[in-house]
């Protein structure tokens, strides 16, 4: 099992245990029986619940590893493609996968439609794309050369005016 799978499994199991503590109010296994001075019998361990949770977590990990984010993180170094900020496991959640052609269904196996961007650069990229869609191109348009000459025939008009 990969290190990340073990990490997620431990984290998920810890959340389940913490949720059970909050719901029951105790951190010990629940006890069955009356408190009449006799030895109380403990409830059977919930190994089937653990196995169910573990199976769900392994299925989730397998689904996630087949997603484009995990594939992109395996293909590319953990560096933002714009600002060159470096990432590690601690802050990897701030690194996002940007689809270059803005089509989230276009996920080629070689990763040619992806680039890794930090959340700030990714937001800026989508803002630029929205502006492009709303207002058109962001580059300056080349002006066409003028074909009309307002001074055409001016000399002849001036001569006609002087003769009168």
Automatic annotation (TrEMBL):
Keywords, in A-Z order: Endonuclease, Hydrolase, Nuclease
InterPro entries in the record: HNH, HNH_nuc
Coiled coil: none
HNH nuclease domain span: 68-123
GO MF term list: endonuclease activity; hydrolase activity; nucleic acid binding; zinc ion binding
Family: Belongs to the HNH nuclease family.
PANTHER family: HNH NUCLEASE YAJD-RELATED
Name of the featured protein: Putative HNH nuclease YajD
The species this protein was found in: Chromatocurvus halotolerans
């Amino acid at each position: 099992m990969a290190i990340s799978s073990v990490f997620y499994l431990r984290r998920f199991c810890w959340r389940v245990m913490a949720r059970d503590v909050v719901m029951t109010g105790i951190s010990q296994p629940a006890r069955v029986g009356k408190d009449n001075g006799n030895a109380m019998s403990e409830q059977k361990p919930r190994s089937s619940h653990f196995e169910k949770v573990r199976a769900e977590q392994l299925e989730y990990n397998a689904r996630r590893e087949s997603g484009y984010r995990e594939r992109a993180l395996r293909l590319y170094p953990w560096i933002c493609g714009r600002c060159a900020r470096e990432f590690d496991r601690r802050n990897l959640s701030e690194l996002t996968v940007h689809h270059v052609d803005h089509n989230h269904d276009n996920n080629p196996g070689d990763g040619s439609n992806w680039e890794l961007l930090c959340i700030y650069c990714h937001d800026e990229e989508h803002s630029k794309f929205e502006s492009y869609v709303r207002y058109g191109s962001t580059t300056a348009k080349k002006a066409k050369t003028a074909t009309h000459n307002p001074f055409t025939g001016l000399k002849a008009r001036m001569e006609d005016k002087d003769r009168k």
